[in-house]
Specification:
four-stranded antiparallel beta sheet, Pdz3 Domain, two-stranded antiparallel sheet, alpha+beta, 356 residues, 12 strands
């Protein structure tokens, strides 16, 4: 029963995430005097609707998203306030607003989760586990603050383990701050191993971090912002892994897989409070993920539409012509079909993995 409640919560949060995205488009369209025909929360049959001015506001049956239907999104309807007739900068602002709202949603969730925090762990080494082999002036010393791992800046404490794990068993390049001086350490042979510490068996790199930094109100804002920006970097690193082959396409998950993993993590938490914290933390990461992915220059996504706006501007400057709207529509339509197909394949894989 608890697992089902978490599944319903995650599905509801997905719906809120998409509705927030569409509200970003709606708000900026209204602000920039672009005609909006309908703004809907939810999908499917309308449960309630009201016409206010030129816009129909509706609440629909399935809480899995929403949409903002602007006049002339895909073709020139002749209306001077149609989206297609707006200047390029207005279109770009409207299209970017959805992703901005998703990023803002992720930031707000993280800030709320950290509202009650009194301190955070710092990436300053306070000790070493038995068997750690990289101590000394040519290696690491107690008091070293880790600034970067293999070129990745350490913005929050969790970055240390994340980026060390990417190079497990190989030479690691570190930049540390020692006595106020930056020191570069190259090819340190760091790897995960089992060790006993504080009466427990651990699997890690042998670094001990026990220093805490108290958080005042500005510190909480700063920490929340750094964590949210770090989510953006996590998405970019993951995309890089996908392009370079470090991560296979078979490891991709869709909505079904994400709902399964997040709800399972919530259900397996020690208490229901811990479960909610874990679920909302992961949903903040997913909200930022959606913000970044939607701005990729892929047709059918907002990023793809922005790409065509910029391409049109270049073509007009060079040839004094514009790309016919129908051609752009063909590209977005074909890409949309391909994306639906990819989503269906990934959904089938997720369902297959759940049952097998």
């Amino acid at each position: 029963m608890e697992r089902i409640l978490y599944i319903l919560l995650v599905i509801l949060l997905f719906g809120v995430m998409i509705a927030v995205h569409e509200f970003g488009h709606f708000f900026t369209a209204k602000l920039l005097k672009v005609k909006v025909n309908e703004f809907a929360i939810g999908m499917g049959p309308a449960l309630w609707s009201r016409q206010k001015g030129e816009t129909l506001y509706s609440l629909r049956a399935f809480p899995i998203g929403g949409y903002c239907a602007m006049e002339g999104e895909d073709e020139d309807t002749g209306d001077p306030r149609a989206f297609s007739r707006q200047r390029a900068w207005k279109k770009v602002v409207i299209l970017c607003a959805g992703s901005f709202m998703n990023f803002l949603m992720g930031l707000v969730i993280v800030l709320l989760l950290y509202a009650g925090a009194v301190a955070v762990r710092e990436p300053v080494i306070t000790g070493f586990a038995p068997g750690f082999a990289c101590q000394g002036e040519d290696g690491l010393m107690v008091g070293d603050r880790i600034l970067s791992v293999d070129g990745h800046g350490i913005w929050v404490y969790g970055n240390v383990q994340t980026y060390l794990a990417r190079n497990d068993g190989q030479g690691v390049d570190l930049v540390v701050e020692r006595d106020g001086e930056k020191i570069t350490l190259t090819d340190l042979p760091m790897y995960r191993y089992e060790y006993e510490y504080d009466g427990q068996t651990n699997l890690g790199f042998g670094l001990i971090f026990e220093g805490l930094r108290e958080l005042d109100f500005p510190g909480k804002i700063r920490e929340g912002f750094l964590i949210t920006v770090d989510f953006v970097r996590t998405v970019w690193v993951s995309l890089g892994d996908l392009v370079t082959g470090r991560v296979g396409v078979d490891q991709l998950s869709g909505v079904v897989g994400i709902v399964n993993v997040v709800s399972e993590m919530g259900a397996q938490s020690a208490t229901w409070v811990d479960g909610l914290i874990n679920v909302f933390y992961l949903m903040a990461l997913i909200a930022v993920n959606l913000a970044v992915m939607n701005l990729l220059p892929i047709p059918a996504l907002d990023g793809g539409r922005i790409f065509f706006i910029l391409l049109n501007a270049v073509v007009y400057l060079v040839a004094r012509r514009r790309i016919p709207e129908r051609y752009e529509g063909y590209v977005h339509g074909a890409a949309f079909v391909l994306l639906l197909g990819l989503m269906a394949v990934i959904a089938f894989k997720d369902v297959w993995q759940i049952f097998t």
